[in-house]
Amino acid sequence: MSKPSLQSILLVILLIIPIGLTGCRAEKTTTEEISSSLPNWRPIIPEGSLKLLEYTTSSYQSFHKSAYTFAISLHDQPVGELLWDIRTLSTGDLAYYMRFTPVPSEHALTAQNAEKSIEIVLPIRLHGTYDQHYLTYPEVLSQEHATWAHTRITVDHNKDAPLPKASVWLSQPDDPDQTEHRVGSLHPGDRELPPQPETLAPPSTILEPREVFLSLVDVFRPLGRNVVEEMYDLSPAFYPREDGLSLTVPLTPGYDLEHWGVLSTGTLVDWTDQTALTDLRTADLNRIRKWGPSGQRYVTPESYEPSSERGFYLNPAQHIGALFLVTEAKGRFFTDFLELALMNAVETQNDAGYWTMTQRSNWLYHDYGIDGGYYDTRFSTDAATFLAKAYLRSSDPVLLQAARRYRNFLIDFANDHHHQTTNGGWFIYDYGHPEHPDTPTHTSLNHQLSEINFLLEMEKIENTSAATALITRALQAISDTAAEWEKEDHDLAYAFYPDGSFGGQDYPLLTLKDLRTTRAFLQDLTQFKTPEAFDTPLFHDLTYIDHLIAIKTAYLKSKNLPLY
Q: Domain of life here (predicted)?
């Protein structure tokens, strides 16, 4: 009998997992359903036990999610909860997230059984020779100083050799006939008489993928407001064993462990492709930019609270997903991550339709009294633009539904939160907060342009009169004030302020890129579903846009700065 492929195994896994969603609304099971929905591919706790507490399922057009929450016990004492989140992707690849949270100190083990750690084994078997690729930071811990390391290893289960303590891509270089397979089987009895939640049998599936991506196993100290601090010295390394990838996890309450990975039957990354190397270096996914069950994390600026040198906040803009949407890099990983980012964008959109910034921005708090939990028009608009562009490529109705929800929110927000200009134009506030609905803020040119560009992106899909009206008012505000944006140093001002002034330090390239995007949209109205909706001079005489582009371009040239 030939060895089954990873795709066939995933199909079997999915057959025993109810995928019950339309519109990607997650469903939770009842107690009676839990025992029949256990994942056949799940972590192993050699010295402890698992109890399934809850699972949810979600379905998109081409990819699926099944998330499980387990309680972990040692010696009949609870030691923590484990999230195990499986994603099946359109490429046939499998991605997973894992988060382990030790129980609070009042529920910790007794002094007699006070283990300091627990072993968790992921059912992924490595064997043979692998090429390893991972980023190192030999000089300074920064994206600019990141360099690729490439080594070749031979896995020997009899030797205690760890994998690098980094996000690492592993690929088998030498044996093209070596195919992925699983060890063990789906026992028919397990499906007829499923194990009960109180006593989970060991999983019967161990996967041996051709290629695998394993993220750095992050240990985070929560600082509050969804900001975490990287505790790199506490991060455990993976040890390849016969029964899977073993790691020893600290049982210290107050710390969370996060890890994710991708298993593939094909080529995750073409390491001869310079575009792939460049884009992955930009993404990092290691020490500079984090990815995990909650989404993308960036290093906290000093102006955020809480903040620390190795603190990370959640940024909902999906910049890396957007990069991978348009990249020409070769390899499945780019499509796989793109789909993970799309799922995250849909899952983290709030009920109002935008994406919340949970940390405090000190300058925003001091200038306007706006605390954490605010709406940042730029980051939310970037996320929604990502969804709209992805829909144009995939026609997934879940993505369109999420983009529409944000468009509707943005229109409502703009109606009540704007500065009006001479000819009825609107400068939309950059920020909002549900607890401060009447607080006016400044309008930066890049935020205003990003909102216009998102609404124009949606016009490729469908026209609505409310969106057309907002695009017109937003462009009118820029046209009304085009002569006022140039500062004394001949750069563009950053923003229009509530007192009617213009000022602030503009970004080197961001606003210029936004202006070019707006101009490209308006130069070809035929790309929109209803081009006749844009029949006013604002959409045809682009002198005001050209004027702002010329100011920025001249300034950058005068400073010998790049234009692209």
A: Bacteria
What single DSSP character describes residue 460? T
Domain extent at residue 111: 6-338
Same domain, 407 and 522: yes
Q: Any idea what the Cα angle at residue 441 is, between residues 438 and 442, rounded to 5°?
A: 155
- The whole-angstrom separation of Cα 465 and Cα 482 is 26
Distance CA 216, CA 206 (A): 21
pTM for this entry: 0.90
Range name among 23-37, 82-96, 116-130, 391-405 with the lowest pLDDT average: 23-37
CA of residue 273 relative to chain centroid, distance: 24
For 114-150, give one letter per residue: b (16+ CB within 10 A) or e: eeeebbbbbbbbbeeebbbbbbebeeeeebeebeeee
CA distance 454 to 37: 40
**CATH assignment of the domain containing 379:** 1.50.10.20
Pairing of strands 206-208, 181-183: antiparallel
Which residue has 């490429």 as its token pair?
Answer: 91
The reply to whether 497 and 362 lie within a common domain is yes
In this structure, are 121 and 174 located in the same domain? yes
Q: Please give the Cα distance from 515 to 381 (Å, whole number).
A: 16
SS3 of residue 369 by DSSP:
coil
Do 245 and 353 share a domain, yes or no? no
Half-sphere exposure of 196 (CA within 13 A, CB side): 2
Domain-located, residue 505: yes
Do 334 and 355 fall into the same domain?
A: no
**Phi and psi angles of residue 300, each rounded to the nearest 5 degrees, phi first:** -70, 130
**pLDDT given at position 406:** 99
Q: CA nearest 94: which of 175, 269, 186, 211?
A: 211
Question: Which residue type does 323 have?
Answer: L
What's the number of domains the chain is made of? 2
pLDDT band, residue 193 (cuts 50/70/90) = very low
Q: How far apart are CA 385 and CA 548, in angstroms?
A: 23
Per residue in 211-267, pLDDT (tens digit) is: 999 999 999 999 999 999 999 999 999 999 999 999 999 898 899 999 999 999 999
Q: Which single residue is written with the structure tokens 């500065």?
A: 419
Whether residues 273 and 370 share a domain: the answer is no
The owner of tokens 């001249």 is 554
Give bridge partners of residue 182 from the DSSP assignment: 207
| R_g (Cα) of the chain, nearest Å | 26
